[in-house]
Amino acid sequence: MSSPRVSIWHDPGLSYPARPPFHPSQRWPELPDAGGLDPGNGVHAAVRELFLQLGLDAGRFGTAAWNPLGALIAPGESVFLKPNMIAHRHRLRDEWDSVITHGAVIAAVADYAALALRGRGRLMIGDAPQSDSRWDLLVERMGLDALDANLRGRWPGLEIELLDLRDEHHVEKDGIYVETVRLPGDPRGGVAVDLGADSAFAPLDRTRRRYYGAYYDWAETNRHHGRGRHEYRISRSPLEADVFISIPKLKTHKKCGLTVNLKALVGINANKNWLPHYVFGSPGDGGDQFEASTFKHRLENAIVMPAKQLLIRGVPAFKDFARRTKRMGYEFFGDTEQVVRSGNWHGNDTVWRMSLDLNRILLFGDPAGAMRERGKPKRYFSVVDGIVAMEGNGPVAGERRPAGLLIAGANPVAVDLACARLMGFDPARLPILSGALHPHRWPLFEGGEADVVPVSNDARWNRPLAEWRPADSLRFRPHFGWRGAIEWRDSAD
Question: What's the total number of domains in the chain?
Fold first, then answer.
């Protein structure tokens, strides 16, 4: 597998440039015609230092032609850049720079990917946002139109694609689904991949479980999971790409503790409702939807789940009724940002399995939907945007956490392990990370946490991960459903 080496660049004063297209000045001679747009782009400078620190092709071509991604990408190939584009805004207020990858980080990575392609081949930038998110606002806020135009002007022979991988957009009013709008989706279509007995869900097949997916139609989710079948519908463009570059946002997450690279692959799906998010019920009856089986929880399911079925049937009068009464429901059962429901807690035994399945498919799957035998995985690289991160009720309702961090590496597990420690979380207490280290037919990481060797401009982190201590971390606040369950503590505590 790829190197466990991880680069960490830390600058507490680092901030995003104000306006797109977020390109650097003539100070970067390796980039042709990049000058004059934003002389003060400190993010590009930080990404450049991040790459230099990792030793990516440093000096191989000389100063004027330094190509940090040259060892990963060959001219004429196809490269898929996948930022975090989950939502166009924070769930509770109109801000976004802690929610999605900032365009300045995307632009810097795209610049060096285009340089490695030498202006030949294809550069795709895409994701599958939440079904109710607005693509037009995401593109505007991330500056992707300006980035597209700038790259085309400098590399006229390079194919540039901005891809909304979703097949559907769900229109909501007052938090209630009211309409489905069909979308073009991935221009290359999607492919079904069944991991079967090799799925992380396979050990659960001995008992019948009822999964809830991304949407009200849980019958669809369960047609693809259970009784030996564990099937995902994956967008073909990421599978066809020669190189996949993940550019996630550093955030806490309500269903798996943290979201960096491993969880972010929900964004390569052609149909997110094939993704199990939780199992109905509580641990006492084989579920992980709630922490415990109480009368109030059973009553909530008895009311809310039939209501969701009526909503997807499109009964107009019921949609109006649901919009008027949803607030009363929250007042009685509790707001989702204050009480545990929908698998939003440390007992979620579902999302980590789904996430690891998706990573195996990306790294070892082919565009026809077959899994290659164990061998060389897809070429992969990660650049994590932690300049402004999120803590608390992530991934869309937490608090901004200016951290001044950029993290890079060539293995998703190694990078996520370092990110967890930076945030003050213990990977052994996070199933998405501890599970990723288990031996498997298609391994995500061959080794353990002790094999991860970060390099950093910050002395606290410029040493093997095994030598870090809790006091070295930035002590992010977990989602309330994970509080007390994942924090990294000294052995004496």
Answer: 1
